[in-house]
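Have a close read of the entry that follows and walk me through the local backbone shapes. See right below:
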Amino acid sequence: MAFLFNKFQDAVRILAKSPTFARYRRKLQFEDDINLLFMYTSYNRLGKNADEADAEEIIDMASKASFTDQQMQVQENVHFQIKNFCTVMDEILLPGSAVPMTRPIKRAELSLRLKDSIGYSLDVKPSQIPHNEASQGLYLNGEANVGAVIAIYPGVIYSPSYYPYIPGYPRVDARNRYLITRYDGIAIDAQPWGYGGETREIWDSSTMQETRPDTDETMLGKALENSQVRCSGEILERRNPLALAHFANHPTEETVPNVMVCPYDFPLTEKDLRTYIPNISFGNAEEQKMRRLGSSWFRRGSRNSGLDDWDSDVPVLKTLVLVATKALCDEEVLLQRPLWYYSVDEDED
């Protein structure tokens, strides 16, 4: 398996030297990353019984499928894993009755029980990266196969039109190392989320101002006061053991990364799973639309059956997950910054 994927990555490195790639580097690198994610997550979905022949078939499919189809399949594959994760969380946290309360389990115990069920959980402790800015690092506790969704990037989601509301704007990156941007320009600020919490609770803009450690709260409050936009509250599971992607460090040049960033659009029609998606949208337009339409919103059937089930018209939360690029076992999670990444500050330079 590793040999086959290494062959593909060699081809990517050859492509990177071409004049076309140099001119359209960000776009082509993003497409290549989706190609890799298509293979990694498809292989993972086959389960532990997948063999080299399966890997070869997936690589052949990746060479023939359109970029759009690959994106859709990556969403399907990631969502399949997210649904399994949410099912396990429900089994651990929800009593087998109609009582509308979750079990009073501490986050540490929940993490251990998750590991017993899916094979891994996450820890945050001092990084082994020899850099003075590394500080805390993210560690996988247990074992995970290639293509596994290792962590979810939590926090507040900002579309480009709402960039001015990011605390510290326009020089937001200088003050916040937990801000990341997707290829489509969606920014996610994980700083308000921090380490999470010990309860399932309503998380909204007031919570953000209380828990954000290094933020110009005056600027945030003024922006909210002078605007009609807000982060309306959602009941989120703050004990979520996988909502720690923002603690993953970048490796040194001598160290090979073991996870990659994957865009994930969570369909808001999946109301039963919403509490385990550790994000809220600034402005919240998509979720407000869902509330207005309620149960009348057109919803396709199972998301497990194929590409045609992924409806592009369904409102989504645009977040990120980290996907394993190799089999992992009790090690620090190291993330390579993708070439398509850009800073929210970029246009201000």
